[in-house]
Amino acid sequence: MSLFVVTSVVLFVLLFPIFVNVYLYADSDGGKVGFAVYLFGVAKVFGGYAAPYSGGIAFHVSKGTALLLPYKEILNARKKFEITKGFIVSSYRQVVEIGGRKGEAAAMSSAMVLRKLTDLVFFFLRRKLDVRLEGDILVDMTRCGARVSVGAVVLFNLLIVLIAGIKLLLERLFENVRRRKKQKSQ
Question: Where are the alpha helices (DSSP H) in the chain?
């Protein structure tokens, strides 16, 4: 009986769905991008803002802490990035605010084109994915620039995280073994 209970609890913890809410905010006037990640929609895991610096992008996560990401690593990240089916985007919402103070016709035209483009992209995504997609386009004639707010909910479980972590560790271990063999043969 005790083994059954322990096994059940372990399986429950490994397979229990974890919801992570990701929020991004960008303002063309401020030049910064804000971000926040919440666990189950209530517990903030981390957040801050990103700003460019001479060699890349600085992610400011607290008053005294900034993580620097050089442009070179951003370009190489595409090669390393692999989407796994274990991480599911269950909803996506975007709000785009276009300022029209300097050009009303341009703002309205941009909003119309963006609305049609968003509808087209969402139409094709809904056909392939089971995701709740929402997008609003707003025009504000009292301001300049543009703002974008994005929110997404990602669903996964601890088993997927453990598998991804083990895979990453094994890849690094095999890479180190290959490097040592190469150094010995030279």
Answer: 2-15, 71-80, 104-128, 158-185
Residue 137 token pair: 């386009």
Q: Is residue 11 part of a domain?
A: no
**SS3 label, residue 100:** coil
What is the Cα 9 distance to its own chain's centre? 30
| Prediction pTM value | 0.71
Q: What pLDDT score was predicted for residue 38?
A: 92
Average pLDDT over residues 156-172: 83
Instruction: Report the distance separating Cα 100 and Cα 82, nearest Å.
Output: 39
In a domain, 58, yes or no: yes
d(CA 25, CA 45): 17
153: left (phi over 0), alpha (psi -120 to 50) or beta: beta
85, 104 contact by CB (below 8 A)? no
Name every residue whose Cβ is closer than 8 Å to that of residue 120 and which is 6 or more positions away in sequence: none
Per-residue tokens: 79: 């090669």
Parent domain of 115: 18-185
Q: Which residue has the tokens 């087209």?
A: 120
**Residue at 9 is within a domain:** no
Write down the residue that tokens 């009303």 correspond to.
Answer: 104
Provide the domain count of the chain: 1
pLDDT of residue 21: 92
Residue 178 lies in a domain: yes
